[in-house]
Amino acid sequence: MNMASNYQEDSAEGGDQLSGESGSDFSDTDTDSDASTDSDSDSEDAPQTPNKRNVCKYYNRGQCRYGEKCRDEHVCSNFLNNSCKYGTGCRLNHNRQSPSSAQDRQKRSRRSPAETEDEEFEGPYRWQLNTGKGWKNISNDHILEAQYSLPNTKGIKIYNTSAGAVSIDFMKMRVLKKTNIKVRRMSSKDTEWLWYYRGNHCWYRYGDKGKSSPIQSSKLETEFQKNRNGSVKLTIDSTQYEICFKGMRQRNVSTGHKRTIRRRPKYEPPNDGGLHALSSRIKNMMSPSTNKTPEWQFHGRDHWHTFKNTGGCSVSSADIERCFQKNQTTMNFTVNEDNYTLDFGRMRQINQRTKAERKVRRV
Asked: C3H1-type zinc fingers: which residues (predicted)?
């Protein structure tokens, strides 16, 4: 797997804040709209039939990525309502005794990750692609996992898979523009899930020291597992808030203002060589297979800019590439007398005075 770039959200603060390659497929705002599309989990309600059966709406759209392992029933909802206009010609299941019965779903929901199609799965996670020939492991998927664990990262583009370059949308866990390819992340039952909310300028983790959050990630995860469509109420400085799992929003009860929340796994780095080895692997995975000289860029407010040794910047794209090829984990440079550090592992440039960050990429 060769990783080219990730997709992040634009920060609300000035030019040195986190910024990203957010097109129409990876846009996000801190408003009341599109709440249902921002969930990291499939927490939307399934269609309710007259018999109160939970029918998978993604199956009815032809988009369910779980297949036989889905917890909801794979049956035509229109058929159950006696309104399917396709009759026997319908491509969906018309069996009222759906094989996805409650008993079968309950049995499948108790399966451990080791009982999935990948018999060698040991955890703590595994990323796989399915191009129509069964699920195949993505090599070096810890790089994918590292990006997925960041709450502001919405997707990633990887190269040299069996299907070529693919863009993975973390928000809906799907492959963009290639409907015949599916992606999934398998997780150990021992995975530690962390919860974040989007502040005015960056993301904050619930329960972090120094933050006015009276609720811990572990508490939110417990409540989430009890009811993925439920909510939790909390009070901060006499102000009441409600955390809604279904829409993945934190709402100020008094003003109605909403903030985006996210659920992401705690990153578990591989135990095979430390930062130096990780940096080496990233170096070998960051570009598509091409003879073109790699170019280093940073993201401005609206678009990407190539590093040039002009206008007060002390390094060029070629300078950064030379350091990268030496397996350095970081490098320092200056811009108009401000000191910066470029972190190759996180693909960020950090202003040492303000601690603000920008995304960088190698293309």
From this structure: 50-77
Q: What is the pLDDT along the chain (363 residues), one digit of tens a residue?
A: 444 456 565 433 332 222 233 333 333 333 333 333 343 333 334 444 545 678 888 888 877 877 777 888 888 888 888 888 777 778 788 877 654 444 454 444 444 333 333 333 556 888 999 988 888 888 878 888 989 999 999 999 887 777 788 899 999 999 998 888 999 998 887 889 999 999 888 899 998 765 556 789 999 999 999 998 899 998 888 899 999 999 999 999 999 999 999 999 998 877 654 455 555 555 555 555 555 678 899 998 888 999 998 888 999 999 998 888 887 888 999 998 899 999 888 889 999 999 999 999 988
Taking CA atoms, 239 is separated from 175, 196, 236, 256, in Å, by 40, 19, 5, 12
My answer on whether 288 and 352 are in the same domain is yes
Evaluate whether residue 336 is within a structural domain.
Answer: yes
pTM confidence score: 0.51
Contact 180, 162 (CB under 8 A): no
Q: Is residue 8 part of a domain?
A: no
* Residue range of the domain that includes 342: 273-362
The residue out of 231, 263, 295 marking a domain boundary is 263
In a domain, 37, yes or no: no
Which residue(s) pair with 338 in the sheet? 335
